[in-house]
Amino acid sequence: MAKFRLFLCSLLVFFMVLSSVSGQGSAKVPAMFIFGDSLIDNGNNNNLPSFAKANYFPYGIDFDGGPTGRFSNGYTMVDEIAELLGLPLIPSFSQASGEQMLHGVNYASAAAGILDATGGNFMSRIPFDQQISNFQTTLDQITTNLGADDVARAIGQCIFFVGMGSNDYLNNYLMPNFPTRNQYNGQQFADLLVTQYSQQLTKIYNLGARKFVIAGLGLMGCIPSILAQNPAGRCSDEVNQLVAPFNANVKTMINQLSTNLPGSKFTYVDIASMFEDVLTNSGTYGLTVTNRGCCGIGRNRGQITCLPYQTPCPNREQYVFWDAFHPTEKVNVIMARKAFSGDQSQIYPLNIEQLASLDNDAN
Description:
Layout: H1 2-19, E1 32-36, H2 77-84, E2 104-106, H3 128-146, H4 148-155, E3 159-163, H5 166-173, H6 180-183, H7 186-206, E4 211-215, H8 224-227, H9 237-260, E5 265-269, H10 271-280, E6 289-293, E7 296-297, E8 304-305, E9 319-321, H11 329-341, E10 347-348, H12 352-357
Parallel strand pairs: 1-2, 1-3, 3-4, 4-5, 6-9
Antiparallel strand pairs: 5-10, 7-8
GO molecular function: hydrolase activity, acting on ester bonds
Organism: Quercus rubra
Family: Belongs to the 'GDSL' lipolytic enzyme family.
């Protein structure tokens, strides 16, 4: 009974914070809720029977406390965004309870996609639909104690960061054992994905979300895993062109959702543009290695991703890529700062700082 009373008190404190739309304290928003894949997963796969895990050294080599399940040597993009918003690091859904939910929850799962079938080659993962169901579980826990009206007003002020789609290409369309490439051309597949994506984001809206940050896909043809498959060792124009219709569709989608969902505010993070800037102007950022992972095996250190207790490169601050698929902490921080306070060349119509400052009514 004492533990139950403590849990209720924690939830009450949680929503006292969430209800404080005037922004008392240093936080710019009450909380951030995160949905996505391995680019922003922080440990939700750790206890799953899955091959998509990063809870072992040298992952987390530069993270205070060591490996956590983040697919990085240190911070992910959303870790830096949380700090810029004045929030603590957001806990994973697999670990969050009571006061741990105080400033939000991360539902992201490595190998997850917009489509439920995506990532099946890694065994267990948490697809986007299930991530939304997990958010519903979080809401149910707190709504029971505080009431729907108070929860809706509070949730409407939170940031909802969503980054989905990369696995729908890497671990679905581009995989020879998946049928989708024989069923759809590139544009048709992008249409399929974004039609479902729109429905999924509308579900989150219907659960009370109003402030959305939607991350596009990066230059996937330039990651070490793809470079290793290219005889010339250069970016794959074919893969980059394959992904381009998805990003174009997402931009159109968020304009439509902003119009059709009353009170909603959507902002688009142009990850492809950010990555192009980082690769083209790498020297400006102190990055000298752009075509291979810091930790991995084979060509471009991208044929086999970072293995347990493998020795990574010592000069991680100079690398764009940590492993076969993911950026280093340095690049994650660069992109997070661009998303937070950058101009409309890379995030629009509002950057995250501007979005956070809006006083939305939960309609």
